[in-house]
């Protein structure tokens, strides 16, 4: 009798311990539909039409690509057990390499150069952490510092040299000469029809048309490539024997070694891919504005790291996080104060829901804090017509901190992440 009861008791025990429901595709679609309804309601209530426009979501998609690529790069590295704080530096190397090659050979060559530049940064990180056992955080920070110094020095040397070809083509010690445009694609007919539906400002329907219009209007081929990379990452890491071996290096490297897995080789491969993806993200930034510029990454490597954590080290979660941060980044660049002002009301609603959930979980202090902040945001929205420019500019970073604070208790990182590994020894 007891043997018969044990299997049935396991799900009950898991539920008693607060086990979470697995997110299936219907649940994901339901969440997306509810989110769109909420944004549609916010747009209708505040009258901020640009909140769901094709231009807004097109800019958000472009802003999400480099962040998503950095986050995806971090996922590859950390799934193999190597913490990669150096994503920002690898993006710098990719951005610089793309600017250097792009003005001479075009945007496709720039993308390839960005991949190589980022991979070189990944190689340095792999040698330091995997071969020599340097602390992963120390190595990552060192790469960020070295990349910043190297790109500034080489930009001065190659782009700003007196009488050089680069300077004659429009370069200087802060930026490369301009490169040609990257080709884009638009679905003829469908794009125009969606734009006409959006112009009617119908509740939900026009908002959905604005989002879909951004996906079929002037989309970079690199954006399509990024989508393909996310899909390929999922199938490689979760649907292949290669991915199983790589993930085992981040969970239990000694056990993987005992089964014949070359842990060093898999860690090297993962960190190289990580650097290449981050470098491609940096190249996207250079290609998007047609040149490399000093300080171009603007902390997006760190935001990419935050998307990886927010996404719980899964490609789908990274994609959603990149979309959120890309939306915030595009919002402050395109619309500024009015849209951020409208989002105060949306943030207040989210905090009110959070307060109810915390209260239901008997966490009264957290519920009270969330409720007080929600009320304060509603009052702020009511008494002010806009928000300070400094808050607008900081909105992507504030969103990063809020998301990490809200989801930090529901994370499950790889068990052996950041731990030194030596063949034949314990992790």
From TrEMBL:
Its main location: membrane. GO terms for molecular function: transmembrane transporter activity. This is ABC transporter permease. Signal peptide: none annotated. The keyword Protease does not apply. It is found in: Cell membrane. GO terms for cellular component: plasma membrane. Keywords: Cell membrane, Membrane, Transmembrane, Transmembrane helix. It comes from Streptomyces benahoarensis. It is a multi-pass membrane protein. The chain crosses the membrane at residues 27-45, 57-75, 82-103, 109-134, 141-160, 211-238, 268-292, 339-357, 364-382, 394-411.
